[in-house]
Prior knowledge:
477 residues, Metallo-beta-lactamase, Chain A, alpha/beta, 17 strands, 5-stranded mixed sheet, 8-stranded mixed sheet, Serine Threonine Protein Phosphatase 5, Tetratricopeptide repeat, globular
Amino acid sequence: xxxxxVLLALCLLLVAASASAEMVAGLPLHIHKYDSGAIRLWLGDxxxxxxxxxxxxxxxxxxxDTTGNPKVDGELRKIIARELGRDDFKVLxxxxxxxxxxxxxxVYQDCxxxxxxxxxxxxxxxxxxxxxxxxxxxxxxxxQEIELAGLAAEAPERAALVEDLTLNRMELEVAQANHPRVxxxxxxxxxxxxxxxxxxxxxxxxGGMHSxxxxxxxxxxxxxxxxxDTMADIWLTDxxxxxxxxIARPGVQHDFPLLLKNWNALLARKDExxxxxxxxxxxxxxxxxxxxxxxxxxxxxxGAHQATVAQASLNEFLADYTxxxxxxQLVDSPGCxxxxxxxxxxxxxxxxTDQQAAAPALFALLEEGADxxxxxxxxxxxxxxxxxxYFLETQVNAYGYRFxxxxxxxxxxxxxxxxxxxxxxxxxxxxxxxxGLYAMGENKEALAMYEKSxxxxxxxxxxxxxxxxxxxxxxxx
Length: 477
């Protein structure tokens, strides 16, 4: 048989397999069997959908996570029962609070639902937050529908777009329905062991690098460690989604000592772990990738303490820990970047020193129209002996652009002026102030700011371009 005939036969088999693939909610269903008692289910070939784990134990079925869509999870529950040959569902475990893992909890209200103490609080959304989500999804679906209508049937990006649009439509439907959230009925703070006859589920708090309530789940009888959405070091698609960032985010509750204690306890169980499983199907995690990330967080946490003992500044601490120098194995590794590292370091700095970020505090004051005295009280901390706030030029600038991008140039200019006051030797702060002033129509002062920016950095392309534009408009006033 010729190679051409063989290839043609393979193609026909693939087409037939695709045509006969089981579908759920318009998306292809995938089922992976780890052994006779553990399966993983997910939807889609391109999107970053949640993967649901199911275990058959001698005391009943245990499920880990939901897809976030009750209709989908209802269908998956039936499929799990079919695949495992039983329907004695007993326990659902949430790896963390996010809706794409807890939104289907209602399907398992007849079971014990287990999660960290902070899951319930994390599931709560204010009416304003909920409406923003509905508005964003509505806008996104409309954009994708237009994009899809403009694509040729044979366009290579069409398949991924169709799946993403399908998922967003389902999420919009769930958001609009706004059903009451079903929270865990059994919770814990540090560790919890759930013995289900012949199978053990060891749960460890690992929160702070994705959500406040992340847990890892070790099932030693199967050699499986589930790590939720905290990390992955291999992408299987071009859209990693929830696994894209390994970072301690502002506003997310942290307990770094407890996190590190539990991570290191899991590292010590290496011989019992055959496979690490992230919470979304399109990312994989090697044990080396897991260990490198644990050691990275540990080094940053120890570094924050050492910096404060040495009375170093935050900027000195940041300069001393770059990925290229300190963690070369994580350069270009999924979820890791210098920007993410700096953000994690500032969160650790706040925890160790009790100093808060000045930029969001100033942003909040300007947003609410606070008086000048309140603003000056924050700015004065820049030179205080024992400051209550820390300042980063890039962070103050970023918050200024948040005002500018939401069409509030007056507040943006106020933020940019503060940055000029704090960092008078930086060309970039004058460039940003010039942009804000130009947006207000204050072209004469904007021109002066761009000239100062170019004086400090003659290579600035934006400064030269804006000078030329303002002069060409002839609107200097």
